[in-house]
Design brief:
The structure is a single chain. The protein contains twelve helices and ten strands. The protein is of the alpha+beta class and 304 residues long. Strands 1, 2, 3, 4, 5, 6, 7, 8, 9 and 10 form a ten-stranded mixed β-sheet that branches. Helix 7 crosses helix 8. The two termini are 38 Å apart.
Length: 304
Amino acid sequence: MSDPLSEAIGLMRPQSVVSKAISGAGRWAVRYSDFGQPSFCAVLEGSCRLAVDGHRAVTLEAGDFVLLPATPGFTMSGFEPAEPTRIDPKASPSPKGEVRHGTRGGRPDVRLLGGYFVFESPDASLLASLLPPLLHLRGKERLSVLVRLVAEESHESRIGRALVLTRLVEVLLVEALRSMSSEEAPPGMLRGLADPRLAPAMRRMHAQVARAWTVSQLAKAAALSRSAFFERFTRTVGLSPMDYLLTWRMAVAKDLLRRQDLGLAEVAERVGYGSASTFSTAFSRHVGQPPSRFARDRPAQMLA
């Protein structure tokens, strides 16, 4: 049976992670401007405060894991009032060695591992559609182990480092997604897969993306009437069944076009279109540019 969550992570193609060790002591605060890319923080020891724009401030403790799928601006600090030092993550070079905030020397009040993910896919925004803006997990030992492995691998030059790091990042993302309760998930794929009625229909769409599905066929897989299925799917996933299928088809098509080893007609057939022209029209309407231009421009964008 198809596993849509694994397929989504696979389409994002996480390539690597940039991470750094951070510590703080005494009176300290740092203000990071909007970053826009997925970032994470794991608390190795001690505690501190995190205030993400648009959310209540939270206390982070040893063993906590935070994932920000789109990383808005945020402030991290100790518990004593302090004027934040402003940091622009897009402009500041990645530091070497541990970053220390507040009192220099001596035992820190908190030690963290922070960083961000690098994706090859143009559809990295899929991650933000699966998760709430702030994912704060506590007491997840498997995540703590994975974060430490990622940190070790990213700072060493072992044979096979790139492959191992890519796989670890994939597992880390999947584990973070699995650790979240369905109630925390925004409308989207994750909440739909947690619904025992909708999940069979979604898995069928992913397993046979080229099939000419109808709402009635999918409703039958969900053991619901057509109207009940349509309403429940739209409310839970945030898209109608056919719009969800279109969105997934276009995500698959982008990945196929990115490879540049398939003709337009074959890509069209693989995602359920009877002709290259019909597919090209649908792709242009959904993506904003024709598939031929998307395939031509993508390598240059990836190397930029």
